């Protein structure tokens, strides 16, 4: 990256280097220095399975258990839906306390992951989703920690600029990380296309997107916190509380990702 920034060819000096290298970005470390990963105390298991049609074939579901486990599942394929089935993308969030003091190990074999899932949710009886089939028919089940990083107020250094998870890693519970990454890419591409000076293009991109995505990072943390609080409440009122939290989250993301929404950061041009 240092070679890129100080390249001898003047042509190269007009080209930005985009760091889209994810949550463990080395470009980020170059750009803003080391920043701590924040662990949300949970393991996520996720998969995709082709199953019989779930409910009306369009519904997003969130199921919570008294131990704090949360299952999110929704259909992701219109062609499969047209054929009368559902391709279900699912994520199970498991708080560390469920493992009774043992920290779960990531990267277990598929067999071990399926065994863990069987013991965690194998006995859930849902009339709209066959949990056993969901686990069995997911070709690969991935496990991750629930992680993000604190929002920062700078994404660039010289002609090096961050986007996506490198810039704003967020809890995935609000399903926004990839969407925000795509908006970043479109915004940066637009700025580079219309602005010949790469420093100005980068500054325009950062000042448009940094405040918006920082707000989404914080909105995801808030939603996670609230949902964990709701888990311990009476089941008669729990659904309503979850609905309110989800709808507040959606509203917050909509409001705060509008152009010119309020800023929690700033950007300066550094050459
Ligand atoms: C369980 C879970 C569920 C999610 N669900 C959703 C969802 O429903 N909706 C949504 O919008 N988002 C979701 N996300 C978030 C989404 O996956 C990320 O926000 C998105 O992938 C970020 O894209 P990215 O391109 O910035 O980073 P990544 O997708 O992480 O891509 C970074 C790429 O850079 C490569 N790379 C890294 N370091 C180097 C290096 N040194 N040299 C070369 N290459 C390198 C990596 O191999 C990788 O290919 C979820 C995330 C998780 C963990």
Automatic annotation (TrEMBL):
Comp. bias regions, Polar residues: 260-271
Keywords noted in UniProt: Monooxygenase, Oxidoreductase
Entry keyword annotation includes Chaperone: no
Gene Ontology MF annotations: FAD binding; monooxygenase activity
Keyword check for Oxidoreductase: yes
InterPro entries assigned to the protein according to its UniProt record, in alphabetical order: FAD-bd, FAD-dep_Monooxygenase_BioMet, FAD/NAD-bd_sf
Source superkingdom: Bacteria
Region ranges (Disordered): 229-271
Domain FAD-binding: 17-190
Pfam families cross-referenced by the UniProt entry: FAD_binding_3 (PF01494)
PANTHER family in alphabetical order: 5-METHYLPHENAZINE-1-CARBOXYLATE 1-MONOOXYGENASE, MONOOXYGENASE
Name of the protein in its database record: FAD binding domain-containing protein
Species of the source: Brevibacterium aurantiacum
